[in-house]
Specification:
Elements lengths: L2 H15 L10 H4 L2 H33 L5 H4 L1 H25 L12 H6 L13 H9 L4 H4 L4 E3 L6 H9 L2 E3 L5
Helix pairs in contact: 3-5, 5-7, 5-9
GO cellular component, one term: endoplasmic reticulum
GO biological process, one term: phosphatidylinositol acyl-chain remodeling
Pfam family, one: Acyltransferase
């Protein structure tokens, strides 16, 4: 076999074994008619304003309910933490609902960890990949009974002065600076 035919043979094998790129489907925007596009352009900012106002109102309501009972923290801590836990659970329900309004449904499968949290203390560590996972985690925690109100979050320090961070600080969540020992 001469050198020229050897190169052709290698190229043919390479071309046959190299996976071909799959054609990407067109974005949904392409398949929409003008009415759907206009509706989409209206719906996105309205939903963003709704979510932002929702958390702002909850922030005010949370502290409106917490200020009258803040003195319970030293006198009757069990009542204080039960009350605060209920409000914290409502906060998680609000944030978990955002995923539902965006069209995401959460389906759980596998072992149910709810049974472990009823009688004993449980440490469950979840490493989520992005901030988009937080509403999903909060949705999942809603069905876990006591675990929802006793959840502690480990957050980056940049969230400390956001509404969720201020409520989280009151709840006992931890804030860390990444990269620092």
């Amino acid at each position: 076999m001469d050198e020229n035919s050897q190169k052709k043979w290698n190229l043919q094998i390479t071309a046959a074994t190299t996976p071909r790129r799959k054609e990407k489907p067109p974005p949904p925007w392409v398949n929409m008619n003008w009415f759907e596009r206009i509706l989409f352009c209206i719906k996105v900012p309205v939903r963003a304003v709704w979510c932002t106002s929702n958390i702002a109102m909850f922030f005010l309501v949370y502290f409106g309910f917490m200020l009258p009972v803040v003195w319970f923290k030293t006198i009757w801590p069990r009542l204080y933490w039960a009350y605060e836990g209920k409000l914290y659970r409502w906060l998680q329900a609000f944030i978990g609902y955002w995923g539902y309004t965006a069209g995401y449904d959460v389906v759980e499968y596998g072992d149910d960890v709810k049974q472990y949290g009823e009688e004993e203390r449980v440490l469950m560590m979840i490493n989520h990949q992005s901030t988009a996972d937080v509403p999903v985690l909060m949705t999942i925690l809603q069905s876990k009974g006591v675990a929802c109100r006793k959840t502690l979050w480990l957050m980056d320090i940049m969230f400390r002065w956001t509404p969720f961070g201020i409520i989280g600080h009151n709840h006992g969540d931890y804030f860390i600076m990444q990269g620092k020992a």
